[in-house]
Batch of 2 targets.
Target 1
Amino acid sequence: MSEASVAVHADADLLAQAVAARLVVKLLDAQAERGAASIVLTGGRIAAAVHRAVLTLPAHDAVDWSRVDIWWGDERFLPAGDPERNETQARAALLDLVPLDPARVHPMPATDGPTGDDPETGAAAYAEELARAARPGHAALPHFDVLMLGVGEDGHVASVFPEHPVHHDTRPVSAVRGSPKPPPVRTTLTLPAINTAEEVWLVASGADKARAVGMALAGAGPKQLPAAGVQGVSRTLWLLDRAAAADVPARLRSLR
Ligand SMILES: O=C1O[C@H](COP(=O)(O)O)[C@@H](O)[C@H](O)[C@H]1O
């Protein structure tokens, strides 16, 4: 498992541009090595800015988007097309604007979809979809080149919230009820599933994230602060703006 590293950028715009540039390079590298790339998207404000920034980079045209698998780390359990869904936001900002193969886009279930309005059924269906994409002879998950996460003010990542029963779920995908952040019903990859990704990038901007980011990097417990329990297989990278990095120990920072 990887040590965490931290890159700090001056503000939210530069952070979004830098994450977008890293993402495009990551996709190109993965396609050069394996012929395809697999990424896991997150929701939230900075994620939307990253998605928009990808399109502004001329190099995004060098990616073969038809050979990119898109997964989600969590989803708000709402009808398809609801503006609050992470999928809807990602489609509007990026996915509908690049030539993806629809068969390689794997949104988490919606309440009005074929798996129905029971989040446990939806979570089980997503786990099956992940398992179908797993490499033969490997665990129940596909290879993820990079998995991106936002970080909540309370330290949540994906829809793994502090002190929530989701921490006891050992399956890769869990239904979440009673989320402290609306909407209350969600589906999420669990921390063990998140930590199978080759690289995990935690992206946070703004002063309201500084306390959670600082505590996670100072070694808080993952049940109290889920972001502290995230570790990519070969890399765990915190990508922050200056405001979100205010409480990061100086020895961990590199200002870009
Ligand atoms: O509800 C959610 O929030 C988090 C963080 O969002 P932000 O707007 O504070 O950056 C996000 O990472 C997660 O995917 C989403 O479902």
Note: The chain has a mean pLDDT of 96.
Target 2
Amino acid sequence: MNKKSVRDVEVSGKVVFVRVDFNVPLEDGKITDDTRIRATIPTIEYLTERGAKVLLASHLGRPKGEVVDSMRLTPAAERLSELLGKPVAKADESIGDAVKAKIAELKDGDVLVLENVRFHKGEEKNDPELAKEFASLADLFVNDAFGAAHRAHASTEGIAHHLPAVSGLLMEKELDVLGKALSNPERPFTAIVGGSKVKDKIDVIDNLLNIADNVLIGGGLAYTFFKAQGYEIGQSLLDESKFDVALGFIEKAKKLGKNFMLPVDIVISDDFSASANTKIINVEDGIPSDWEGIDIGPKTRELYADVISKSKLVVWNGPMGVFEIEPFSHGTRAVGEACANTAGYTVIGGGDSAAATEKFGLADKMDHISTGGGASLEFMEGKALPGVVALNDK
Ligand SMILES: Nc1ncnc2c1ncn2[C@@H]1O[C@H](COP(=O)(O)OP(=O)(O)O)[C@@H](O)[C@H]1O
Ligand SMILES: O=C(OP(=O)(O)O)[C@H](O)COP(=O)(O)O
């Protein structure tokens, strides 16, 4: 990476404003997945062990510039304290005199979690005044929030114009791993794209066709391709505006000599529930009008697993079916297991794909599970991430 990291600057005795992504899922005020908090520990410990005073700033949810009590960062601060095995202070604001007073009390190596930065309207607008307020708290800015690096906000981008600005260790690792995967990929390189966000993901397929050897499609994304090819898809997910784009990808793959694979068989269901009737059909048989496609079928699972097993690099973004409901989870599990068992390097991106690998007990067997969904997708599309662009060059 051509950007400076915490390793390139003096941090001892400095007040360091670290932007993290503590946007974790909460249920009844309890954190249900602390992956994103755990992922920032190396940066926090790097700084505290060298005697920095660490301020942690994050968003949580989308409070739209209002103070929303259920979106306070208190549970995240408590979890962090458990993970670090030491007390962590918490402020009820992210700027202002009360925060400055708390910072004045910090000793070298202490940690203070600031309140949700999105309680201020200026955060998402990247308001320069708010960015200056954040900057006035510290001597150095460290961006470790890879999950929010695709956002140009006051605490991710704006602040970098007012302080020396470097990346944290998580940010550096995410960019290194994804960057290596995309710039100099080990081959065969297989990209797997599934999930339900057809609009968001279609552009990614375009770029993946340029760089990958195999592109495997699954999940709700597949049905737009089927319909565009003239097959009946019943009630399945569909984006009619993408027919031409979908057919264009099939052509592009042919031209480039790439192995572009769509499911050959699918699991269909007459209801979106575990008690629904299900059938396995070949795609060309067509889906009855009141049924929908909810998973890839057994032949497809085998074909995909075979490609994955022979790959040196696998990038997977988006589940193969509605994995949250057990009878529809087999395709996602099969692809997850194939990724876990391949000798190739595996990168998992996207919140739901990461949750699926966690649910199936496969997370430990993956080489890299990215903390960014939208961020890793934008990176793979070849877009510049504003939170990274704003950091100081080496
Ligand atoms: N065939 C399908 N029909 C409807 N929804 C699907 C289908 N396949 C997968 N999904 C849903 O897609 C969701 C994940 O999509 P998405 O958000 O695009 O993935 P990610 O978070 O991994 O990027 C899951 O909740 C899953 O149930
Ligand atoms: O959870 C996040 O995005 P992701 O679900 O795409 O990984 C990030 O914290 C960014 O949050 P945002 O999409 O509300 O800006």
Note: The mean pLDDT is 95.
